[in-house]
TrEMBL record:
EC number: 3.1.6.1
Coiled-coil segments on the chain, per record: none
Pfam family for this entry, one: Sulfatase
Protein name as annotated: Arylsulfatase
NCBIfam families referenced in this protein's UniProt entry, alphabetically: PRK13759.1
Keyword Transferase: no
Residues covered by the Sulfatase N-terminal domain: 4-365
Amino acid sequence: MKQPNIILIMTDQLRGDCLGYAGHPDVKTPYLDTLASKGVCFDRAYSACPSCIAARAALHTGMEQSHHGRLGYEDNVPWNYANTMAGELSKAGYYTQCVGKMHVHPLRNYLGFHNVDLHDGYLHAARYGSVPYRESQFVADDYFYWLKQELGVTADVTDTGIDCNSYLARPWMHEEKYHPTNWVTDRSLDFLRRRDPNRPFFLMASYLRPHPPFDAPQYYFDLYKDKPLREPFVGSWETEEYLRKDGRIFDSKTGPIDKELARQAMIGYYACITHLDHQIGRLIMALIEQEVYDDSVILFTSDHGEELCDHHMFRKSRPYEGSCHIPFLIAAGKNVLPDLKSSSTCHAVVELRDVMPTLLSIAGAQIPDSVDGSCLLPLTADPSASVRPWLHGEHSYGEFSNHWIVTETDKYIWHSATGQEQYFDLKEDPHELCDRIDDPDRQNRIHELRGHLIDCLKDRTEGMSDGSRLIPGRPYPVTLPHATAR
């Protein structure tokens, strides 16, 4: 049987609910909505360690976080993994190409890809201080190298005055064709032009947006700037302590204290999403026009979400839905995956570690023993099926460090620095407005989920569990030593 082409469309910091097909009342995503109508949407998809590096380690290795060794965000740690998604697909006969974000170390580590057209966004650690010449983003990043050639040596994505983690928003200052979102599509189309037509390909189109800066072209800002927008979700359990202390521009762990700035952030975020959708549409149209769509499988997802002022928070790394709930869909052309139930929704809890075994199965390749994830192909044929009853998520994040257990219907959260617990009934309360940790009718369920977390942590080196209870305040590293040696 002919191996299908595989296209992985990866985004950065895209919430699971900020899509038209997911029911968002404001965001317009016509191309992704169409793709969703032709595939299976997984509406309980999560990023188990929701920030860029750890999430991408799960994606590229198929491992859960204690096995790949990334428990949070730390740059400049080498990526030395024996088995990677692109490496295994290359062994299976695929020509493998990534365009856009990798966020690995060293920057030109290909992780098994035959070729990478790299753009990692604005990485502080690869720009300043004692960065070796070959590791400087001005040298290693293909987009920045190209932008310098096109617009001059001083051109940069922060020329608008917006930091790469900021909630500030303003339109892109150059012609749209120079935007990094357009660049990823342009380079992906160039790959399709020059590919070997006799060989199956794996293309990872890895977009930076809607990760800040919120700098979509003016047209996309105009779509949202005069619209009434849904307010951020703020429940009964939050306080404004951190918002009042940190709700200014130089600490974006919270949203802005100024409600107009919060509205501008939403406008900028939504503008980036619709711009992204249109560029994904260009890529899909090219697949159709070049007559490869019918022989291809498309998987669309994101590395993590964005709190976007929900619960007074901003960015990611938190255990709440805005941060850790991600989009995830699988669609296929008419000549592949004949059992796929198009225009259906699967409520199973899935995670980024499931991408690698799923794509390897599609390719007919063996799944390495190191992989913890599950193949999701049976769920595309039977969306009522499941691959796990619950998922353990976590993030090392200083005073905000957290662990959580999520199921198809509810979530238990343990804040490991303080010992604070939370419980949310996601079926009744999908936006986590009411913390039911003290509800007497929920104590048996909370005890059950807490027990899962105790078991997950009992054999780990941090000492957060002794097998019978959770122990707060233990040292919680961002990266485990074996992350550089697997």
